[in-house]
Amino acid sequence: MDLTWIKSYSKLHPKPEGLALQYGTAGFRTHAKHLDHIMFRMGLLATLRSKKTKSTIGVMVTASHNPEEDNGVKLIDPMGEMVTAVWEGYATQLANAEQDSLLKELKDVIEKEDIDMSEPASIYIGKDTRPSGASLSRAVLDGVSSLGGKTHDYGLVTTPQLHYMVCCCNTHGCYGSPTVEGYYQKLSQAFLQLSQNASNCTDDQKRLLVDGANGIGALKMTEMEPFLCSKLHMVLSNDSSSGKLNHMCGADYVKVQQNAPQGMNMGVGERCCSFDGDADRIVYYYTDSKGCFHLLDGDKIATLISTYLKELLTQAGLNLQIAVVQTAYANGSSTRYLEDVMKVAVCCTKTGVKHLHHAAQEYDIGVYFEANGHGTVSSLKRAVRLLESTINLINQTVGDAISDMLVIEAVLAIRGMSVQDWDAIYTDLPNRQLKVTVSDRRVIDTTDAERRAVTPEGLQDAIDSLVKKYKTARSFVRPSGTEDVVRVYAEADTQENADRLAHEVSLAVH
Ligand code: NG1
Ligand code: ZN
Predict the structure, then answer these.
(1) Which of 370, 435, 477 maximizes ligand 1 atoms within 8 Å of its Cβ, making it the mutation to test the pocket?
(2) Closest alpha carbon to 271 in 307, 226, 308, 233
C-alpha cells in the first residue's frame, strides 16, 4: 500500500526532535505549543480506528482542569467510551515517532490491526474554549483528511457532549439525535419529567449558583437554560467572558483548595456548584452561618445518587445489584457509609474514569465517581418505567457535569432535601492533596489501585511509619497522568493532622 503522500502532509505538522509524550490518564496533555504534531497524528490514528471499527470515532481537543496555556487530545470509541489500552499504546507510538519514521509506524499499526484502508472513515471533532483550540483542531482535521476520512467539526462543545454525539451516531439515533439541540432536548425532557415528582418547589429551592470555570460549561448552560422551562434558575459566574480558564475557579480548584471560587457571590447556605474546564466534572458546596465552607464532592454525589436508585429498586421490587466504584482518593467516611450503612458493594480502581467505567459495567447498576466530581451511572440493564426518566437524564457514555447537575437537582427536589441535609449524610474525614515536583515522576510505581508504592524502595515503608503516627489516617502517592507532578493525598482525624501528614509524606517523596 502506498501512503508516501503522508510524508509531505506530516511535514506541515513537524515533530520537535526528541520530544516524547505519553497517552496519559485522559489522553495527551501538555503546553499547547508542543501539540501540533500530536493533533495531526491523532487525526491519522482516529481515521485508522474508524476504519477498523467501521464506526464514527470522536476526537476531543481539551486539557480539562489544566491551566489555560495547556491543551490536549483524547479519542472517543464508538459507544462513547475511551479507547482501549492497546490503542492508547498505538497513540504513544505514533506521537513519538520521529519525522522520518512516522510512515513506518503508521504502517505497523495498519498491519498489526489488519486494517482495510479502502473502508470509509468518519470522525467527529470538538474543542473546549482554550485559545489554542482553533489551530490544534485544524491540525486534527488535516490528519483525518490526509487519509481520506470524513469529518464533522462540532466546534465548541463539552467533552461529554462529544461523547454523546459519537454514541448517537453509532447507535443510529437510538440514544438520541447527534446535535447539541438533541442533547439539550434529551436531558431537559427527562429532567422535566422527573421534576414532576417534586412537590411545590419554592423559588429559593430552584436557585443554583453555577461557577463555569470561565470555560465551555458556562457557554453551554446558557444555551440549555431555555429548555429547562424555569424549573431550575441558574445564576452563572465565571462565565468565560470575564476571566482566565480554571484560574482561581472551577471544580478542580474548589476540590483541591477546599474553598469557594473567586468571582462567586455566595449567600449563607446557598447551593452552589462548579464545573471544570471541559464540563465533565462537577462539585457542590455552600457556606454555613459561621462562614464555614462545606464541600459536596464526587463521593457525596455517588452517595446521593446510589441511595436514590436503591430506593427506586426497592419500590419497584427489582432485585438488581447496585455498586459504587471509587478510587484511592475517595474519602474514608464515604466508603464506610456506603458499605456499612447503605449496604452497597464498593469497589476501588485506579485513577481515571476509564478504569472506573469498566469496573462499573460488571454490575447491574454501577455508580462511579472520582472524588473530584467526575463520574456517572452505567450498566442500567433492565429498566422499568419508574427508572426510565432517571436513566434518560444520565449521560451513560461518560461523566457529564451538566447531566449530573440535573440529576442531583431533581433528586434533591423529589426527596425535599436541602444541600445541608445532603451534606449531613456523613462527615468527611479531613484531608489534603498536594503536588510535589520531582526530576522524574515515573520512578514511582504503584499497586493495589494506586494505594501502595512499589518503587522507589523504602518509600512505602516511610509512608507507613508516618501514617502510624496519626489516628484514622491514610496516605498514598502516585505520579499524575495529566501534569508533571507527583500527587500526595492524606486523610486524618483533624485538618491540622491531615495537612501535617501530607507535608511529611511530600518530604519523603523528594
Ligand atoms: P491525574 O493527573 O492522573 O491525577 C487527574 C485527576 C483524575 C482524572 C484526570 C483526568 C485527581 C487526583 N486526578 O488525573 O481523577 O479526572 O485528571 O481529568 O483528581
Ligand atoms: Zn474534565
Answers:
(1) 370
(2) 233
